[in-house]
Amino acid sequence: MLRFMPKDVLRLLVLLIMMASVGAAAAKAHLITFGKWASVPWLPGGEAQKPLMLKVRGLFLDGRLKEYTVGPFHEVTDRLFVVRRAFRMNDNLPDDPAFSPRWQWQRGGWLVVDRLTGHISPIPMPEFDAYYSAAGWYRDYAAYCGVSEDGKQLYAVVAQLGRRKPVLKKLLGSNSIEADDSAPPDSACPAPLWQRTPARVTFEPSAAAKQTFAIRGHVVDLVNETEEDEEPSK
Predict the structure, then answer these.
(1) Which of 37, 56, 187, 204 is deepest in the core (most CB within 10 A)?
(2) What is the side-by-side strand order in the sheet with 219-223?
(3) What DSSP element (H or E) covers 166?
(4) pTM exceeds 0.85, yes or no
(5) What is the pLDDT along the chain (234 residues), one digit of tens a residue?
(6) 229, burial (CB in 10 Å: exposed 0-12, middle 13-18, buried 19+)
């Protein structure tokens, strides 16, 4: 009976149907879930070391496994969250049987997950080292001790989502445990500690002096000892 309708009414009906279809497609939400925790052997320093136990769990998008993750996730906004990646690396040598991979678990970098689009992408974090660097998150900032390419220097680094260049990169000192194969992960520098109002982050490397920095947008100031002794608002 559509052919008997006035042209203006028919056009309006077609437009409403198209708008409803677009709205329905846009309203489709993605289901992002985590699987159960599992303990897996981790050899961060090679097979000469005693394996550590690493707790991992799957990250699922609409019921499909997309990544493995380690540690808690951090809510950035009501749409975005970040989580650290874990993955399996094939440790086979060229002469090993190809049909029998030697899978070894490793910690990776950080991922940002968009609940609206379902997009999962790696976060650029300059000088982030999968063995030595432990990140502390606040809002959309990640603070961690970065490691130079030769593994001998530690840097105070603050990275921000959406920016490839770090907000802060300052030399802290030498990475004194770089040559120690028995040193446990994250032992050179624990995750930096954040404070709010004003936003401050404190780095305490094991072989260098503690340093605190005030973060204001893209501006960073070194906090001196007098200011640091003042009790900040929590």
Answers:
(1) 56
(2) 193-195, 200-203, 211-216, 219-223
(3) none
(4) no
(5) 445 456 565 565 555 566 555 454 455 678 999 999 999 999 876 555 678 899 999 999 999 999 999 999 999 999 999 999 999 999 888 888 877 888 899 999 999 999 999 999 999 999 999 888 999 999 999 999 999 988 888 999 999 999 989 999 999 988 766 555 667 788 778 999 999 988 999 999 887 889 999 998 766 777 765 444 444 444
(6) exposed
- Rounded distance between C-alpha atoms, residue 135 and residue 210, angstroms: 16
Q: If you count DSSP H runs as helices and E runs as strands, how many of each does the chain have, helices first?
A: 2, 15
Three-class secondary structure of residue 101 per DSSP: coil
With contact defined as beta carbons under 8 Å apart, do 42 and 105 qualify? Answer: yes
Single-letter amino acid, residue 205: P
Torsion over CA: 128, 93, 102, 66 (sign): positive
- List the structure tokens of 167: 């907000």
Q: Please report which helix (H) or strand (E) contains residue 41, including its range.
A: strand 38-42
| Cα 175 from Cα 123, distance rounded (Å) | 24
3-state secondary structure of 137: strand
What are the residues facing 136 on neighbouring strands? 143
> In whole angstroms, what is the distance from residue 63 CA to residue 203 CA?
39
Separation between Cα atoms, residue 39 and residue 42, nearest integer Å: 9
Q: Amino acid identity of 201? A: V
Q: What Rg, from alpha-carbon coordinates, does the chain have?
A: 24
Cβ neighbours for 220, distance < 8 A, ≥ 6 positions apart: 158, 167, 168, 213, 214
